Amino acid sequence: MSLAVGNLSFAVIKEKLVAQQRLERHDAKWLWQNATNEELIDLAGLVRGRYHKPDEATYLLMRIINYTNICVAKCDYCSFYRLPMAKDGYVRDKEWIFAKIDELAALGGELFAFNGGFNPQLKIDFYVDLFGSIRQKYGDTIEFYALTVVELIYIARLSKLSLEQALKMLKEAGVRWITGGGAEILADSFRLRHSPLKYTVQEYMDAQKEILKAGLKTTATMVIGFDESLDERLDHLETIRQFQDQNPNGLFSFLSWTYKPYNNELGGNEVSAEEYLRHLALCRIYLDNFKHIRASVLTQNANALRGLKYGANDFDIPWEDEVTEMAGAVIERDVERILGYAQAEGFKTIARHVVPSKDCQ
Ligand code: SF4
Questions:
Q1: CA 1 to ligand 1 centroid distance, Å
Q2: E strands of the chain, at which residues?
Q3: Which residue has its alpha carbon closest to ligand 1 atom 4?
Q4: Residue 359 pLDDT class (50, 70, 90 cuts)
């Protein structure tokens, strides 16, 4: 059992949660520094239980489609990007993309997430044509996350459009979702150190607001394991919790994954499996206004399913993602085995649908 420090103790913090009171930043800090794993599981279970049955978890089969690896943002933690003119830079054509969709759709996959880079050759027309063609060809039989928040900002500026104008064009083409990708750590000190061209926290959050204003859906993400401090992690959590207070249920879900340190400028080490689980629990406890906390099978494999005990209620089974694979992720594609990991932790696994024809959740 953890010891009391100052006015804080596990019992005091638990009492707050039982009374449905919100934890302050110093409570979260105390928990991270002092709580045992069992205590974090206990508290995460309390908050998870406000939204979900304790023994159920949802999942969906999905694929990330990397449509271009050309990017001028030059984040030092990235293993994926190639600068314009690089011999191995690419932009995938529609036939290639359709084949990727067809392959996973045939296996029952419904969700496709597009993720590329800041490619100075691709203005808004490219995306309107691509996403419009996908919606036309597949209708409502699949769903797709069209862009990350930071790609959206880049494309709008490159095309000399306001975010409002760019979002209107994308929406008319059939886009319904943008994702919170590109957040990494929402602390300007972190962004200045590692990704100065990837927009400030304010720019990122303003874009999230515009996405909601345009009537599109969006999510929250976070990546840990670079060299960020505990305070930078807490800045991130505070920023999105505040945003969610101001825009109730605006961010559909929160997904946190771990940095992979291979083949890039930054290097470093991977966070331990235990650190990821403790982080997941802290997120579940602190982000009390988020219904869905998702675990990252993409970067954690079997350990992600242990995360269901640490407060997560949902997970993707990803088929492919060049960005994290280039950085060292090894994707497990045996769906039954992955579901078995969750079941071994005591959870009933339920397929989550994202297309309207199948009881969308
Ligand atoms: S992380 Fe994304 S934005 Fe940064 S360099 Fe890589 S592809 Fe570009």
A1: 42
A2: 56-65, 111-114, 143-148, 177-179, 218-224, 251-258, 292-295, 314-318, 348-351
A3: 75
A4: low
- The DSSP 8-state label assigned to residue 225 in this structure reads -
Q: Which atom of ligand 1 is nearest to the CA of 116?
A: 7
Q: How many residues does the chain have?
A: 361
Say what the pTM is. 0.95
Output the residue whose Cα is nearest ligand 1's atom 2.
117
CA distances from 171 to 145, 187, 217 (A): 12, 30, 11
74-96 pLDDT per residue, tens: 999 999 999 999 999 999 999 99
Going by C-alpha positions, the residue among 188, 278, 205, 214 that lies closest to residue 244 is 205
| Rounded distance between C-alpha atoms, residue 270 and residue 48, angstroms | 27
CB 272 within 8 A of CB 37: no
SS3 content of the chain, % helix, strand, coil (to 5): 45, 15, 40
CB of 199 closer than 6 angstroms to any ligand 1 atom: no
Instruction: Classify 289 as helix, strand or coil.
Output: coil
| CB-ligand 1 contact for 41 (6 Å cutoff) | no
Whether 186 and 201 have beta carbons less than 8 Å apart is answered as yes
Does residue 4 carry a pLDDT above 90?
no
The answer to whether residue 172 scores a pLDDT higher than 90 is yes
What are all long-range contacts of 348-351, with beta carbons under 8 Å and residues at least 24 apart?
Answer: 348/55, 348/56, 348/57, 349/57, 349/58, 349/59, 350/56, 350/57, 350/58, 350/59, 351/58, 351/59, 351/60
117 Cβ below 6 A of ligand 1: yes
Residue closest by Cα to atom 1 of ligand 1: 78
Domains of the chain: 54-358 (3.20.20.70)
The pLDDT score that the predictor gives to residue 82 is: 97
Find out whether 327 and 261 touch, Cβ atoms under 8 Å: yes
**For ligand 1, is residue 118 a contact (CB within 6 Å)?**
yes
